[in-house]
Design a protein that fits this description.
Blueprint lengths: L2 H33 L2 H14 L16 H16 L8 H14 L6 H14 L4 H5 L3 H22 L4 H32 L4 H10 L3 H8 L5 H10 L7 H15 L5 H21 L6 H27 L10
């Protein structure tokens, strides 16, 4: 496959996964505005901004003793910043636009049904602003965007040819999913540690954001314990959104793609994916020590970033002199 095509499909997968993840967080956050206490609302905003490594637009912190009116006004500003702010390249609108643009350039690699699905969603989103969704039902906007991306993935499953293009799209999705989950878990641990807010609600909302609440109840009953939440989200091989599941899929896709034009770098990427999966499988601390678990997640984050660099060097921006000679 041409490196340009691999790049477009890889980043299409990454951007759409990022859009869906941020919409899941924001949907739960705006739903909390209706009936949740102010400290819990601020906890949610701190966690989201920490996970995306961005400062709030007003430059300050979230004060838990503010009034309901200030909290609602701040939430309006924060939701606009994360959803429609065009200067924010990680906003919902920006990520969806970039994902669609990569799909447009790769129309020869995806099915017509996939392009139609994605384009119809973009036509709905492109003219909106935070004021448009806020005066009606902001949670409905996020839920609809998630459904449209899920539909796109389903259409891809049903119609896309199972060649290398399919695998690069999945590679992008699952690298992004792994990085986003690690960032979210580290943000949760950091926010709880610095604010001493180890409330059940923060961990319950984390499960809901990761679409893992029902799986948690099935495995552990209704009592939400932080150590069990981390065990489920990090190590469970049956949970679609778990870190281990994402890393296992990454290793499988890289093995199927093969070393690529830059054989040494491609082999290194496959080996790192396998080591990263084994790190979670064999070295995840069994004792519920948040510091030990945070340290391992930091290692996993560093490996994920390095894995992206290796994938880029092996299949996209590779050195021609490193390519095998036929």
């Amino acid at each position: 496959m041409l490196s340009r095509s691999a790049q477009g499909l890889y980043w299409m997968g990454r951007y759409l996964e990022r859009t869906s993840h941020l919409c899941s967080l924001l949907r739960l956050q705006v739903e909390a505005l209706v009936d949740r206490p102010i400290p819990e609302i601020h906890f949610g905003w701190r966690r989201i901004y920490a996970s995306v490594d961005r400062r709030p637009p007003f430059g300050g912190d979230f004060e838990p003793d503010e009034s309901d009116d200030f909290t609602l006004a701040d939430s309006y500003t924060l939701a606009g910043d994360l959803t429609f702010e065009r200067s924010n390249l990680d906003s919902v609108r920006s990520c969806f636009a970039l994902g669609r643009e990569n799909a447009r350039q790769m129309r020869h690699c995806i099915s017509a049904e996939m392009w139609t699905c994605l384009n119809l969603a973009w036509l709905r989103i492109r003219g909106l602003d935070v004021e448009d969704i806020w005066k009606v039902s902001p949670e409905s906007f996020y839920a609809e965007t998630i459904r449209e991306i899920d539909t796109f993935i389903g259409v891809a499953e049903a119609t896309m040819y199972r060649d290398e293009g399919w695998r690069f799209m999945r590679l992008g999705r699952f690298i992004e999913r792994a990085q986003l989950l690690v960032a979210l878990l580290l943000a949760q641990l950091a926010t709880v540690r610095t604010r001493d807010e180890a409330t059940d609600t923060g961990w319950t909302s984390l499960l809901r954001a990761c679409k893992a609440f029902d799986a948690y109840k099935r495995s552990y009953s209704v009592e939400v314990r932080p150590d069990r939440v981390l065990d489920l989200l990090v190590t469970d091989p049956l949970l679609p959104g778990s870190l281990y599941r994402s890393l296992d899929t990454l290793a499988s896709e890289l093995a199927a793609i093969g070393p690529g034009p830059s054989s040494r770098t491609g082999a290194a990427a496959g080996q790192l994916a396998g080591r990263l999966r084994d790190l979670i499988r064999h070295e995840w601390p069994k004792r519920a020590d948040p510091e030990d678990r945070a340290a391992l997640l930091v290692r996993a984050r560093e490996h994920c970033l390095k894995l992206h660099d290796l994938v880029n060097a092996a299949y996209i921006d590779y050195d021609v002199d490193d390519s095998p000679v036929h």
